[in-house]
Every structure is written in structure tokens, then in C-alpha cells.
């Protein structure tokens, strides 16, 4: 048998040495007989079978490992499912408990509001009677009293007036908490409101060292809100400022920012520490050291509830020794 292969025309011509190497290589690799060729092929087949067997064994090991892994994953999945179901049952039970607690809190809040309203209503009549009797005793048409008796009667009237103020604040707070106050929204001109506040509160500025300043808002000063509730809020804040400010000024100003009106009541009083800013809006809480000027601790909680009813916010900015600024923010279009 003669075999040949064509090469490219431009291929270099093999040298005699290179042709001798080709002949030697062919002589080494070519089998001598058909039996030798079959032996070589059998050896290659046996090697291939060994490799297939080895791969089959490795695949069996991998399949076993995969099956074991699947069993572990399935067990873990079952465990997680049971734990998740247990957690869900706990969450459902917790929600049920929270609903029950919420219902109890609502019932307690309603009971407290009813109690405050009933007690306040029942106390107003006797307290008013005490104030009226004290006024009759000090009237010029009554029998003359000694100086000591007059002083004691004045003390009784003053205490009864303080008690009546507390009763009225309790009643207002109970109304606000029970949702019985419904804002009557109308278009309000702020300038007459500020003028009324200026005239009403000027008599409360009894300290000559304290000046009450009510700045006239710039026109047009229109706001859709409840005029009565807004007046109560601003009067409460101004009254607080006048009570706790010993020298300087208490100032009320209003300015418009976008679609909101901001009312700022600033005083030069002792100021309030930052950690107490939230607590002063709690019922019956009073800043330590400020109880000497009186008060019940109900004015600010009531004012914040009214502002919330009007769709606004009431915030405080204050530091000890730098006074306080209460800011009421209300939407121009109303709640």
C-alpha cells in the first residue's frame, strides 16, 4: 500500500534529514501485524472502559451525595415550615392580644373622659356658688368686715377662682378627647383676631418689666379655620408666656409660608430644657421650678389637641436661659 499527501506549491521542500525522521517515526508507530493492531485497539478499549467505570462510580457517589443533600434540605424545609407556622400562630395570638388591649385602652380613655366631664360639670356649680357668696360678703351693702375677715374672704374667692379655672380646663380637655368639638371652618381675617387678643391680654401683663407685643399680620391675612378655637390656642400660649416671663417681652407674630400660616409666640422667659419639650404637652405636667406661678398643666395639651383638630401642628423651640418659641402651623385652606 502506498500513501501520499499533496502539499502546497509554495511549501518548502523537505530535506533528506527531515524525510529520514518521518520514516523513522512511521516505523516506530506502525504495528507490525494485524494481531499487534488488534492488541493495541483492545488496550485502548480497556482503558476507555476503565475511565467510563470510574466516571460511573463518581456519578453514583455524586448521586448519593445529592440524595443526602436533598433529604437534609427537605428536613430543614419541614423544620422551617413548622417554625414559621408556630411563629404565625404566635403573631396571630399577639395581634388578638393587642386588639384586646387597644379595646381596653379605648374603653379606659372613654371612661376617663366621661369621668372628667361629669366631675367637672358637677364641680362647677358649687365652686361658682362659693365665688358668688364671697362676692356677696365683700359687697358694700353687706355688714362690714374686719380687715382679717376681708383678707380671708379674698383668699377664699381667689382659691375658688383657681379651682373653677381647673374645672373648666378639665371640661375642655374632656370634650377635646371625646371628639365632641367640631371645628366651624370659616374665612377668618387675622387682623381683628390679633386686635382682640391684644386688648384682652393687655390686662394680664401686670409686670411692668414685661411687654406684650402683638404684631399686625400683613394683608391679606385670610385663613380658613375656626376663629374661636384659634383664639383659644393663641390666648393660651400668650397667657403662658406672660405667666412665666419675668422681664423682657412676649411677642405674637404671623407669617405665611406657601400654603400655610405660621403663628409664633415668643417669650424671654427661663426657657425649657430639650428633654422636656415633649413632656410639657402631657396632661398635668409642669416644668420643675415653674409651679410657683400657678397653673394646672392642662393648657398646652388642650392647645395641641385644638391645633390637631384644625389640621395643624404645635411645636416648641426652647433652651434654658434663651426663652421659648411656640409655633402653630395651620393650612390656609382649612383642615
Under CATH, the topology of the largest domain is which?
Heat Shock Protein 90
Reported for the largest beta sheet, the result is: 5 strands, mixed
Q: End-to-end span in angstroms?
A: 109 Å
Instruction: Based on Cα principal axes, name the global outline.
Output: elongated
Low-pLDDT residue intervals, each spanning 5 or more residues:
none
With helices defined by DSSP (H or I, 4 residues minimum), what is the helix count?
6
- Structural class computed from helices and strand pairing: alpha+beta
Strand content: 5-15%
Helix content estimate = 55-70%
> What's the CATH class of the largest domain, please?
Alpha Beta
The structural domain count equals 2
- CATH architecture title of the largest domain: 2-Layer Sandwich
- Order of H and E elements: HHHEHEEHEEHEE
The CATH H-level homologous superfamily of the largest domain: Histidine kinase-like ATPase, C-terminal domain
| Strand element count | 7
Strand order of the largest sheet: 2-4-5-7-6
* CA-atom Rg in angstroms: 47 Å
Mean pLDDT: 82
Question: What features would you describe in this structure?
Answer:
This protein has two domains: 37-180, Orthogonal Bundle (Helix Hairpins), CATH 1.10.287.130; 186-331, Heat Shock Protein 90, CATH 3.30.565.10. The protein is elongated and about 160 Å long. The model has no long low-confidence stretch (mean pLDDT 82). It has helices at 16-29, 34-137, 147-178, 190-201, 227-244, 299-309, and strands at residues 186-189, 210-214, 222-225, 248-257, 260-267, 313-318, 324-331. It is built from six helices and seven strands.
Amino acid at each position: 500500500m502506498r500513501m501520499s499527501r499533496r502539499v502546497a506549491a509554495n511549501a518548502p521542500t523537505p530535506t533528506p534529514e527531515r524525510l529520514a525522521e518521518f520514516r523513522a517515526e512511521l516505523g516506530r508507530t506502525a504495528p507490525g501485524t494485524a494481531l499487534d493492531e488488534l492488541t493495541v485497539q483492545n488496550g485502548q478499549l480497556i482503558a476507555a472502559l476503565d475511565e467510563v467505570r470510574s466516571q460511573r462510580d463518581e456519578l453514583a457517589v455524586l448521586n448519593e451525595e445529592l440524595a443526602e443533600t436533598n433529604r437534609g434540605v427537605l428536613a430543614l424545609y419541614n423544620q422551617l415550615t413548622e417554625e414559621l407556622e408556630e411563629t404565625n400562630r404566635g403573631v396571630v395570638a399577639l395581634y388578638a392580644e393587642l386588639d384586646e388591649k387597644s379595646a381596653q385602652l379605648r374603653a379606659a380613655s372613654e371612661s376617663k373622659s366621661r369621668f372628667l366631664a361629669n366631675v367637672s360639670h358637677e364641680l362647677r356649680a358649687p365652686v361658682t356658688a362659693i365665688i358668688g357668696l364671697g362676692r356677696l360678703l365683700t359687697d358694700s351693702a353687706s355688714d362690714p368686715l374686719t380687715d382679717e375677715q376681708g383678707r380671708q374672704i379674698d383668699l377664699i374667692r381667689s382659691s375658688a377662682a383657681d379651682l373653677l379655672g381647673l374645672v373648666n380646663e378639665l371640661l375642655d380637655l374632656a370634650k377635646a378627647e371625646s371628639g365632641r368639638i367640631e371645628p366651624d371652618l370659616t374665612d377668618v381675617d387675622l387682623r381683628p383676631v390679633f386686635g382682640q387678643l391684644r386688648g384682652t391680654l393687655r390686662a394680664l401683663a401686670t409686670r411692668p418689666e414685661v411687654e406684650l407685643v402683638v404684631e399686625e399680620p400683613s394683608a391679606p391675612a385670610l385663613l380658613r379655620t375656626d376663629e374661636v378655637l384659634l383664639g383659644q390656642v393663641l390666648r393660651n400660649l400668650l397667657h403662658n408666656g406672660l405667666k412665666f416671663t419675668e422681664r423682657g417681652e412676649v411677642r405674637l407674630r404671623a407669617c405665611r409660608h406657601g400654603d400655610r400660616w405660621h403663628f409664633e409666640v415668643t417669650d424671654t422667659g427661663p426657657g425649657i430644657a430639650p428633654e422636656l419639650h415633649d413632656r410639657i404637652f402631657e396632661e398635668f405636667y409642669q416644668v420643675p421650678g415653674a409651679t410657683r406661678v400657678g397653673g394646672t398643666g392642662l393648657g398646652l395639651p388642650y392647645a395641641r389637641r385644638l391645633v390637631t383638630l384644625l389640621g395643624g401642628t404645635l411645636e416648641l423651640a426652647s433652651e434654658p436661659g434663651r426663652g421659648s418659641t411656640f409655633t402653630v402651623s395651620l393650612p390656609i385652606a382649612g383642615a
